[in-house]
Write a structure and sequence with these properties.
Blueprint lengths: L1 E2 L6 E6 L7 E2 L3 E4 L3 E7 L4 E7 L1 H4 L2 E3 L3 E4 L4 E9 L5 E9 L4 E9 L28 H7 L10 H21 L2 H21 L3
Parallel strand pairs: 2-5, 4-11
Antiparallel strand pairs: 1-9, 2-3, 5-9, 6-8, 6-10, 7-9, 10-11
Length: 201
Amino acid sequence: MWEQPTTVSRLTVDLNRDGLHSIATPSSFETPGPFEIRLRNHGEAVHAHLNLDDALSAVARLTANNHYVETESSRLVQIETRSIQSPVTGRLKIVTGYGAEVAYMTVTVTPPGEKRSRVQVDETLSVPKPREPEEPSLVDRLSEIELTAPGGVSIALLAFGVLAVGLSVMIALSLESPIVLFGSLLVVVGVIAALAITKPA
């Protein structure tokens, strides 16, 4: 049984808008059952021929194929459909000027009340992921290493002491001065005292 439009679903086709016999229409159209095609003429009077392909003709039919649209006017074309259980997609062909211009568009007829499919989005996708701990740099790793010599004495302090003693002895021997030698001995005593102080009990 063919159903006629009750709740109007309308497809608008613009004719002569971009020049004589031009056709402007959406690339696709979806309707829950019967619908109307509005032929809107923006210029001189024109003849429009409408045709449904085999897939669309199985569930929809035109009241008439050829339509004359007067200058600067509109004309409504009723499209009846059958009761269906699942969506059906086909193509609508529109011809003007006895074949001068041809346009095609995809039409999908869905069962009444059927909701359009939506992409399900996982709610967890909207929650930002926790940041992963960054790998410690080489400097950070070295700073975490406790540089100590046996006995708990700092390696840096021990190296400084050895360097100071070595320089003092070399200067004293090269100058052969009692005063410098005495100063060197004071440096050695100071280094030994410092190492003794820093050594844990």
